[in-house]
Structures are given as structure tokens and as C-alpha cells.
Task: structure prediction
Amino acid sequence: MKDAAAIRERFRERGFIVGEPFATALQLVIALEKPLLIEGPAGVGKTESAKTLADVLGTRLIRLQCYEGLDAQTALYEWNYPRQMLHIRLSEAEGASRESQEAHIFSDAFLLERPLLEAIRQDRSPVLLIDEVDRADEAFEAFLLEMLAEWQVTIPELGTIRARHKPHVILTSNRTRELSDALRRRCLFFWLPYPTLDEEIAILHARIPGLSARLANEIARVMEWLRDLHLHKAPGVAESLDWALALMSLHRDHLDTVALEQTIGCVLKVREDHGVFDVHRDRVAAILGAASLAPAASGEPGEAAGGHSLETDFGFGSVSRPAR
Amino acid sequence: MIHPFGSLPENLAAFCRMLAAEYGWHVGSGELHDAARALGVAPLEDEGVVRDVLRPVLCSNLDEVREFDVAFNRFFHGESTLPAGTSPATARRLWNSDASARITRRVRARSATSPEDADGAVERSRAASTVAAIESEDELDGEDAAPVHARLSPLAGEGEAPELSPVDAAWRQAARALVRRFAAGQARTWRSAPRGPRFDLRGTLRTGLHTGGEWLHPRWRARPRRRPRFVIVIDGSRSMAEAARAAMQVAVALASATSAVEVFAFSTELERITPDVRRAATGRTRRLPQLQHAWGGGTSIGACLEQFTRRFGARLLSPDTIIFIASDGLDAGDPDVLRNAVARLHRQSAAIVWLNPLVETPGFEPTARGMQIARPYIATLAWVGDATGLARLARSLRLRR
Result:
């Protein structure tokens, strides 16, 4: 797939709305075979974009979730020691020679592949998601640099394994710490911001097909306003979807004061933010009034909110499909 | 689009050279090569597509994403400093390496919104006051243009932002002692270790392979210590004057001892200065850029600390974070805002260490309003003026845990 428009369309078919710039960045990941580092606020669809890319390309998604203390061994491979030991004991009983034992116990049958090794041994380029790379230690980041540059792993007992097909690599970061310049230089970079109003309406429709146009419009407007409020934890797209589902489960087809009181906990998750919201509560009526007066949006993404197109300066996405 | 040069490769090379020379981006031959390859896979008729293609290849952080369109417009739309009517030949001459050495034109436009204030704020247009320093030695018009400096800050003081200088061995040694002192709690994960509370069956089996399967060398598992993280918030208001410069030395020393350091300056606004401090820690003297409202003005400690928790709290505050606040506590802001901000920092960090230069004044009592409010939340109140002071602080500090 070499066309950004085709990528957009395929993503849209899977309920993931991407802008032209993000689609272009994904196109470059495929064309240049370079990793893509995606940064952005929590809940905008960084991880989900990798999952959707794998689905679109019809390939495997291999995920490496980073955390503090993650080491190369956990990410690459381990020998299955208990099994090796058992094999040694059995071989000894059978009288096998030491050479034949060694040749056997250090073979693929006793190798436990971890995500990075698994990614380079695929018959077809998989999508390798290195999630929340900022949570890993700097030592692991240095190891990752080598992997991303060479795409080969040396296992002393087996030799060097080179990637048959380079994986499509997506790295995500929530910026809990600054990543090194060296890692950044090896990657393409994309900043994934919150969606615009029209984009959010399109996401709501794409993800929750039965949602009324009015409710989607009102949710998107309130969310846009909330994100401008300097909250301690600004709500992401995941919160929009949760909120929409909560309102639907309460059989609401529009937002009013009562519905807002009942469900605001889906959106604001820090006590201080509720205080900020209370201070600005008067603004909500004006926002909902404006939303009600806005032209009714159709259920089709892209025709919502006064017919604005989905062309934006930045790409965007949404998070995982909400559980029903 | 204006193409200063005739061919695409020349334009691309000159654009990359401009980004590296004038904007300080890390754009080298590798990035140029990637950019050329990227342009090969996209239709070039649409300027928007060209931008979309070059942006992910040439930018490596949010800062650069923000600057990209300005640089692109400047280069390709004639918003550059080349005079109108400059022939391609002249432009080529000026852009080649010899000429670029003569043309030292720096245009730096820094948004008042910190690049780190990004989580959700990137597309919010805030009324950003801008500092622009334009230095021009353009030879085209045959006369030296005077440097122009503009500072749009009604509250700014007269003082220049300070110079960050590398620290000596004594400072570094004291900082390392401080980092060791603050060794945080144990990590979540277990790792193989020579000694530890858990028996490591896997490791022991692995070691047993060398001794014919006999378990002669038992291995253990232990949880390593987590690294402490330091946040240093320095009051750059007029009342702090020289003291803030000493606090900067503490920041540089800590940055030379550990990479888990974040440094901020504030006066009436907050500004992140970590990259400059890190560069100073590597041995390069560095003058801070104009910090606008974050240096030399009045003091609004509460509002700035609140700004810190809102913008950076989610990423930087944790039970492993030790916060140093270097301030004299002479606050002109709302006391409730300060109380709430310090209380929040107290809840979300390992300890607050308040560095107050007035501590060294004989008969000092923390009676300033800001100090009185913050006092219940402070683990240690001290001042560090030199390496000896930092070493003393390292010995005397106690964490809340």
C-alpha cells in the first residue's frame, strides 16, 4: 500500500479516522522502512494506530510493552532452562554423547522467543509496536538503538540472526522522560494531538454507530471546551467514547444538566478538575446551546457539524473499540 | 512556491542546511537522504503533501514540528531574508557553504508556550508573546545591519538571563553523594543477583549447565533500587538576583551526576530550561535564552508551581521525585493558590526541599508569607551556595518515606 489516501480509507473502514499528515507518515513507515515515533497526549490513539496498521496490512502485530526495569533478555530471547535440564537428564540416561546433547539443547526447540526476536524471524514484515518506550530505562533505549539500526541479533550459541523482512516499527511515548536524540534521529516523528471538533464527531460516529448526531455534536463540543480548561488530566478520545456509551446506556439522546451530573465522572477523573469544572459550569449551557443550534449532522463521518471536511493539519485517531 | 535553486535536490539540500545552521536541528546527510527518498514516494504537485512528507522525516520533536512550517514558508515562499529579485545564481552563491559562513542570520522565534506544554495544548492558540532576536550581517545590501532585540514583557526586569557554566569536580562529587543518598525504593521487577530474598531457579539451572547439571552455584533474585528523579524549580525574580545563579549551579551539578533531572525557572511564568542545563553539565558554557516572564520580574510562586503541576505534573511527579524549590518565599500571589500547589507537590512527590538564600542570614525566621504557607510541606529548609553546602545537604537530608 503506497498511497496515503488508500491508508486513510482502509483505516476509516476499521473505524479509525486519520488525517492526511498521519496517513502520509504511515505511508513513509512502509516506504522507507524506518521506525515511526509517535508522541502525543494520552488517549489519542497512538497504540491503536499500530494495531490498525497491522490489520490494514494483514500482518501480525507484535507488541513490546516497555516498563521500568525491562531488559534486553526479556525483550529478545531466553533459553528454556528447565526444559534443557530435563533433556540433559534424559539424554544421560540414554547414553547420548556430550556433543550431541549440546547441539540439541541449543537449538530452536529450546529457544523462547521474545517480541524483538519474534519480529525479525517472521516470514512477512510484521508491525512491531514498542509501546511507551519512555517508560523503559536508558540502558534499554541504547540497546534498542542497535536493534533499530542493524536488525540483527547475535545469540552466542546459535550465531547471528538477521531480519528476513524488516518489521514496520511504531514506537509510542507519553513523554514521562525525554528520549535521547540518537533514538529520535533513527525514527520518523509524528505528534498526534487531540482531534478537532469535526474529527471527534467523526470518531464518535465511526466507533459508536447508533449514536445520535446531536449527542455526538454536544459531546465533542464539551470535550473541546474541557481540553482548553487547564485541567490536571485533560480527557482524551477514550473518555469521549466512554461518555457517549454511558449516555447511550442511560437512554439519553442529548446532553442536559442532569445527564451531565450523572456522567461527568466518565470524563473528569481528578478531584481538582471537578472543582475547575464547577467554576466554569455556566459555560456549559452556552456550549450546549450552540451545539443544539448547530446544523444537524448526519451519521456519516465527514458530514458532521456543518459539513466541515475532515482535512486537517494533523492526523488523529481514536482508542480501542469500547467494550459493550 | 519559490524555488531558490533550479533543481529539487539542490533545494532540498539547501533547505536542510538552513534547518541545521539557523534552527539548530540535527539534520545531516542521513536525514537529507531520507527526505529525498520520501519525496520519491509522494506526489509533489501538492505543497501540503510535500510538507506532510518532509515533516516526519526532518522533525524529531514537538519543538521542531512547530517550527517546521515557519522554516518551510521562509525558504520556499520568499519569507526569507533574501532580498526580492535575487537571482538564483546569487542565491546559490549565498547558500553554498562559503557564503553561509558570511551570512550569519539568526531568526529565533520562541513561542511563550513551552514545547513541553504540549499535552493537548499544541493546537490551542495562546496569546504568545514573542522574543525575536535578529542579527544580520547581510552583505547583499553592503552595510551592516544593527542587531535588533525586542523584548515584549511589561513585567520583565532589567537583568539578563544568567550564564550557565560547568561545575568543578567538588560540585560533581557532592551531587553524586546527593543522588546516592536519595536512592529510591525498590523496582517492581525482580532481577537475577548474587544475593537476594528469592531463589532464582532459572538462573541456578543456567549456571548448572556449566557444572554438568549439578547445582553448585545457587543464584538469587532481588529487586534493584529505582533511580530517584530530581525536579529543580528556581525562582528567577528580582529579589533572588544572585542567589538564583547559585541555584543554577546546583542544577548543573545534579545534571552532571544523573540524567533524571528537570529544571525550571520562574518569575511570573514558568519556563523549562532543562536542555540548557544539561548542555552546561556536559562542559559547555551556555547563556540561557531570554526567559521573558520567567526571569527578572516579580514573584508568583503559587501560580507558577500550580502551572508546573498542571503542565508537567503527570509526567514528572512520582513517589521517586524529589523537588527542590529555590526561592526566598517572597510571594506576591494568592496565598490559597500557593498552599494548594505546595500541598499537591507534597502529596505527589518523595519530598520537597526548599532552598532559601535567606537561611544564611543571622537570626533568620521563615516569616515571609510564602514560607509560612509552604513550611508544613517542606522536608528540608536549607541553602546551598557552594559545593561544600551541597555536600552538607546530601548528608543531612531526610526523605518523608
Confidence is low (pLDDT under 50) at residues 293-324 of chain A. Chain A touches chain B through 55 residues (CB under 8 Å). The first strand of chain A starts at residue 36 and ends at 39.
